[in-house]
Structures are given as C-alpha cells and as structure tokens.
Amino acid sequence: MLIDLDLTGVDISGKRGGFEPLPHGKYNAMVDAAEVVPTQAGGKMLSLKCKVLDGEHMNRVVFWRLNIQNDSKKAQEIAYVDLAILLKNIGLSPDFFSDPQTLIGKPFEMGLKITPAKGDWPAKNEVNFTEPAKNQPPVAPMTGRPTPPLTATVAAPPWG
Length: 160
Prior knowledge:
The chain is mainly beta. The protein has one helix at residues 73-89; strands at 25-38, 44-52, 61-69, 107-115, 124-132.
C-alpha cells in the first residue's frame, strides 16, 4: 500500500523525545509492566517498566532490572532490598512476593541517577531509591452503608 505524504516544511530540528536519560532527581512514577526474564548467565531478573506520572517528563519510561536470582549474592541482596522497599512503598507486604503483576499501577516516588556512558553503552538512568508516593490525590473515605452483593431472586412457588 502506497501513501502520499508531503513532508515539506516539517521541522526536524527539534528533539523527538528519544532515549536520553532523565535528569537526576525524584519522579512520581508507577510500574507499567513487570515480568521475570532469564539473564544471560542463567539467573532470573525482575524487569520493571516504570512510567513517569507527571511533570515535564510525563509518560517517559525508565527500565528497572532487579537480579532476583544471581550467582552474585551481592547483586541478589541488592535486588531483594530494593524490591522489599518498593513493595512497602506501594502498600504491599514485603514479607512474601510471588506475582509481579501486583506491582502494576501503584504510584510511588522514584529517585533516578545517571550512569555515565561506558564503552559502546550509552548513558542511562538507574533507580537508586523509592519512597511512598507524594502529591497524590487522597482516596475519599467510604461513607454510608456498603451495597450488599446482588443475589439471585427466587420466584414464588406456583402453589402459593
């Protein structure tokens, strides 16, 4: 299928919003996707796609990878501590974790730093802490009586 587009006059001098790291700082964010993936060394990594929720960098994405099964006990320990803190900050129990999907959609504050470019690898963001979400709209308290669940209605018997 061919298309006819006249791109004459399209300004291509501006930024397109590429993959440059976000500035060092704190961002309101949430996990947008989460999955456990294998590492090249045969371990397991919890891969989190975090989305910035507001401000100048709204909707930008930061990938956060936690080495949950790794030959390096130090790397694994760092991942466990970071995950336990994240769970606590989004209101989940840090005692037991089994389903990465439970992380999705819960706001938190994410601290970012920039890891400089090294060799063929470009500079990138690194999550260096999380905190409970700030500046989030409060949840309205429930008032009145809760609505009872719907139940099946039973028809009156034909004899009366």
